[in-house]
Structure formats: C-alpha cells, structure tokens
Specification:
- The chain is α+β, with helices and mostly antiparallel strands.
- The chain has five helices and seven strands, in the order ααβαβαββαβββ.
- The strands form two sheets. Strands 1, 3, 4, 6 and 7 form a five-stranded mixed beta sheet that branches. The chain has a two-stranded antiparallel sheet with strand order 2-5.
Length: 171
C-alpha cells in the first residue's frame, strides 16, 4: 500500500511538473516573440540613422543635380482635332501635285501627324497614311503652314494634331 501511495504521489508530481513545464514554454515563447518584434521595430527606427553613420566621413555627400526643367519651363502640349486646327490656319501652301502621281492617276488623302509650336509653326510632321508619292508633296507643303497660336488659360501651348491633305485630279 505504501508503494501505491508513493507511485501515485510520483505520478501526481510528474503531472504537475509537466503542466508547469508547458506553462513555462508558453510564457517563454510569448516573450521570445515579443523580443523579436521589439528588435525588428528598433532596427526599423534606427535604419536611417545607421545608414547615415555608416557612410565614410571622408566621402563627399551626393547632391541631386538641378532639374533641367528648372532653368527652362516646359511649354504644355495639348491634342486637338484636325478640324479645330484647320480653323486656326493662318498661312496655307497648296501642295504641288507630283507629275508621277498625275501620270498614274493617283488620288487620295494623305494623313499627317503634326506638332505645332506655341508660336504656331510646324515643328514636326510625320506621315500616318497615304500614297508615298503624294506623301512627299504633302510633307513639303505642310512644313510651310502657319497657325494662329493656341492659348490655354491665356498662355500659348504646343499642339498635337492630325492634318489631312486631299489630292484630287478633278477640280
């Protein structure tokens, strides 16, 4: 009987020890998580200071060069339709009908993409579609066109537009 009491008290003490140990593990794992979170937070807070102090004292501080736009303000560019641009046309040079196109009875429309300066001059012109023989004559003529300056909030702006040049043998 005494051995039974001893065995049961050993078993009870073993169970208590196991329960206390698992509680200890739960507490320490929670503390470990808390410590890891604190360390990460601290590293995050100190990272700008650490990167600054890690730079060699002799090394020159890098400065950003001034932006090129700061010296010369960029003129805004707006896109307008071809009919609106046509209404602003001040000086139009008619394209010469190429003899090759006349001989081969080539007709059609040449569509051009143009960028107009704030002063109304044609800065850039590219062929979008049309017969190559007619396109060359259209480009030569449109490069000489002049437009009234387009204003946005009272300020002249560059204009992105399309221009249709129609070539017809009749008329």
């Amino acid at each position: 009987m005494s051995s039974t009491i001893f065995e049961s008290s050993s078993l009870a003490s073993f169970c208590l020890t196991t329960v206390e140990f698992s509680r200890y593990q739960e507490q320490t794992s929670g503390l470990r998580r808390f410590a890891v979170i604190c360390a990460l937070f601290l590293a995050l807070l100190l990272s700008p200071w650490l990167s600054q102090s890690a730079q060699a004292p002799d090394s020159p501080k890098t400065e950003q060069p001034p932006a090129p736009e700061a010296s010369k303000p960029k003129v805004p560019r707006i896109k307008i339709g071809g009919n609106v641009a046509k209404s602003q046309l001040k000086h139009k040079v008619q394209p010469r009908y190429p003899q090759e196109a006349r001989d081969n009875r080539i007709e059609g429309t040449v569509r051009l993409h143009a960028v107009l300066s704030a002063a109304g001059k044609v800065m850039q012109v590219d062929v979008v579609s049309g017969d190559p023989v007619l396109a060359k004559a259209a480009l030569e003529a449109v490069r000489q066109w002049e437009y009234k300056p387009v204003l946005l909030n009272g300020e002249p702006v560059e204009v992105d537009t399309t221009i249709d040049v129609v070539f017809s043998l009749v008329g």
